[in-house]
Amino acid sequence: MSDTQNPPAGWTLSHFKAVCADVGSWTWGTVQGAFNEKASITQIIVDAVIGMIPLVGDATAVRDLIAVVFGLADDEEKRNSTWHWVLLVVLLFALIPVFGGVVKGVGRIIVKVAGEAVHMAAAARVAHMVEGAKEIIEFLNRIGVKDAEKWLLKLRIGDHTGPLLEKFAHLMVTLDNILIKTGNKISGVAPKLAERVKDLRKSLAEVAKKGKEMIPNAVKEFDQKLREIQAYIRSGGETTSRLAMHEVATGQKLATRAEERRLIEDGVLPARNSRGGFNQNPDADLAEIAKYYKPVPGFPDLTHAPDPITKKYNSVAAYAGKMVNRELKDGEEVFRFFGPSRTTHGVPVDEAGSGGVWWGVGPPPKTAKEWREQAAVLDSFNGDGFYVSAKVVGKTRPKAVVGTVSEQFGKKIPGQHLGGGATQAFFLLDPGFKKMLNKAGQDFANGIQQSKIFDPITGLEFTFFKTGWTDANGIWGYLHAPGITTTQTARVGSREQAAKHNEQVVIHP
User: Fold this and answer.
1) E strand or H helix that includes residue 371
2) How many angstroms separate the most distant Cα atoms in the chain?
3) CA atoms within 13 A on the CB side of 227
4) Looking at residue 96, what is its pLDDT?
């Protein structure tokens, strides 16, 4: 085998030896590799980006692998430690072009966070792991991974055991070949060093043998730590996207980590549960409700009138996480779906009018699936067919309660569960204008074209549209459909069903 074949990445032997010399006396096992326990997250991210490049030219990846491998060779205790093999597994991903570099970056953060969390109390550990999940998402966003959370949630380290074992075997053969040639060249001039190289080859042979046993175990351990991070993302762990959701819903930007930490610890951010939905806010105890919502004079009071039968504050439960009293902004868009009465799965569904108190915030959803699932509009709340869009254009602005939509469960039509996560606003229209808007919506549904309608009290300008959807009713959110779907359309009546507490909401962009 030629010199250019022996070293990794097509290097010449002299180039490889120069790299080894650059990192220190690597044959003595004194190399300081990537796993400096005091390495900062920033250092890890920079190193991980370098590691995204295939091994060609990546002296950092070579240095780190040498450091860890020879650390295992020199210390039997390390060879028997699964955690030290986890470190090696993380670095072996650097040998897989592009994809492996990304996993290496994720793995470096997981190793650091998990190692620090071991000695923490339970509460502190949770907060630290939440921060780790956020760091990983930030890293993935920073290097341009699209849908970072989705990518991370799909990652399974165990799927790569075979390729990792192959890369490890190739690395060990490469190092052994280098040591053989080095030992042959120095045996006549430096016999003691040649003997050290010979001993090192024996130790590396032990590492190679042990790796067949330990790498699969290390992969399982690495995968378990990854799943812990994934669990925080699925079940309420704070991430970039959830902070973005909070900012869209409330209009409040988070300038500091301290503010983010406070929102996490106070539990006021929308929290996703194991069902995939967003938890409803408390609906009975005003003291508990106060953690999420406090009425403000001049804004609607969602605790003013509880349900007359259950005595619960259903409007508060329609939100997930912090609810904010704020004026809608100039140019901000809201909208509301409406449509005629109908029958869905054999259950009558009342007409929904174009005027009301529940509105979406932002552009309308593009599909019926988005509308039903993310806006959590149950089939029993509302059919579809039309929507009215409004934009703030006047000097006055609606005073609204804004927040994230919570999950909803079907009662009148059992078996439907919609997760929520969109943004909704509750605000009041003047009764006279509301009646006029309802009438305009009815006329539009009956084929009478409507011009834009301006409300000087709220500063909103309203425009009517037809959805054109054919799959909005009786389909989305059912594990098993309750029966044969029957849908019939009637003319829009002269009244609006106003008793529903969460009938119209929207998808945020």
Assistant:
1) helix 368-375
2) 104
3) 9
4) 79
- The percentage of the chain sitting over the pLDDT mark of 70, rounded to a whole number, equals 75
Q: What is the pLDDT of residue 37?
A: 37
pLDDT tens sequence across 108-154:
888 888 878 777 776 677 677 777 888 888 888 887 787 787 888 88
Q: Are 103 and 136 in contact (CB under 8 A)?
A: no
Strand partners, 423: 404, 506
Type of residue found at 288: E
- CA pair distance 286, 284, nearest whole angstrom: 6
Residue 362 CA neighbour count, 13 Å, CB half: 21
Strands 342-344 and 417-418: unpaired
Quickly tell me which residue has 């000087």 as its tokens: 456
Total residue length of the chain? 509
Q: How far apart are CA 378 and CA 388, in angstroms?
A: 19
- Rg of the chain over Cα atoms, rounded to whole angstroms, equals 31
What are residue 335's DSSP bridge partners?
A: 360, 389
Is 450 within 8 Å of 440 (Cβ atoms)? yes
Q: What is the pLDDT of residues 450-483, one digit of tens each?
A: 999 999 999 999 999 999 999 999 999 997 655 5
- Report residue 488 as tokens: 């019939």
**What contacts 161, CB < 8 A, 6 or more positions away?**
215, 216, 219
Q: Concatenated DSSP letters for 196-223?
A: HHHHHHHHHHHHHHHHHHHHHHHHHHHH
Q: What is the pLDDT of residue 52?
A: 38
First to last CA, the chain: 58
Measured in whole angstroms, the distance separating CA 394 from the mean position of its chain's CA atoms is 37
How do residues 401-429 score in pLDDT, each as one tens digit?
A: 999 999 999 999 999 999 998 999 999 99
CA–CA gap between residue 391 and residue 206 (Å, rounded): 71
Global pTM reads 0.54
**Alpha-helical regions (H) of 55-147:** 59-74, 76-79, 82-92, 99-117, 122-142
Residue that the structure tokens 């060879």 belong to: 79
Question: Rounded to an integer, what distance in angstroms lies between the CA atom of residue 363 and that of residue 239?
Answer: 24
